[in-house]
Request: fold
Amino acid sequence: MSGLVEARPRPGLRRLAAVPPIWLVLAALLVVVVWRDPTFAQPASLLAFLKRCAPLLVLALGQLFVIVGGEFDLSVGALVTACVVIAARLGDGDPGRTWWVVAVLAVFGALVGLTNGLVTTLLRVPSFITTLGSMLVLNGAVFLWTGGAPTGALADNLRVLGRSGMTGVPVVGQLPWAVPVLVVVVTGATLLLHHTRFGDQVFAVGGGPRAAMLSGVDVWRIRTATFVLSGLSAVLAGILLAGFAGLSADAGSGYEFQAITAVVLAGAVLGGGRGTTVATVGGVLTLQALFILLNLLGFAKPLRDSAEGVLVIAAGAYTAYRARRSG
Reply:
């Protein structure tokens, strides 16, 4: 009996084992980043880091719903670019047009997501093919519309969320608006995915669509809804990115792969049925911290892309191994 008692792990070790591994990786990366650049530990630098992470984090949370539901959405990067270009072209720098421009973007993002969802679920086209096609259509349409050189301007009040912040905040001085936006988005996504019937149905559909259908879940409705959420997240990510980086013909290029990478790093299973919003936050922060570290070490962008690919493979292999062990 005493041997059994001694074999039990200590409470501190049990609590450490309960922490998602991605947060431990993030902590290690941040230690190395601060070692290379001590100014990164300053409150203003940390807030700037969160502001830089905001578009990708919003996009990854939308992608999480799709992946947990058992599908992919490769169109979100192109949708981000389209939203930035449309906002500049329709708004043309006029603050008075901003609110109806945002409404147009929201409808546009929801329609793209709805189309992806319906083609995937009702026409039974694999989501990889569907959203890859949407990505090509959006990229081609943006190029034809702009000729490769976007025109117009982003209104100042449209760029507020991604560029400005609350001034006079103790300790930090200025709190970027992107940070409270992230708090609201993460809280809302957590409640929706983990504390509502809709979230339970998303997990059920991803875990086994036939079993979910036999239990009374409208599989096609749930999966279509996740694509709509992903489209809306791309709109918000586009607004944040427009404020942070400005107008560009390739504003969202590569963001779809970074979002999937972050979700996979966070432990989500690509076949569906597993994933958490809290771990996804850690996945995004870890990915961005890794990019910062590679920049500090002087690595070129192609090598950073290669590192991202290795991370996807390693994270996918780890989650598959963990899924096999858990049965």
The longest helix spans residues 219-245. The domain at 20-325 is CATH 1.10.3470 (ABC transporter involved in vitamin B12 uptake, BtuC). DSSP finds 15 helices and two strands in the chain. The two ends are 30 Å apart (CA to CA).
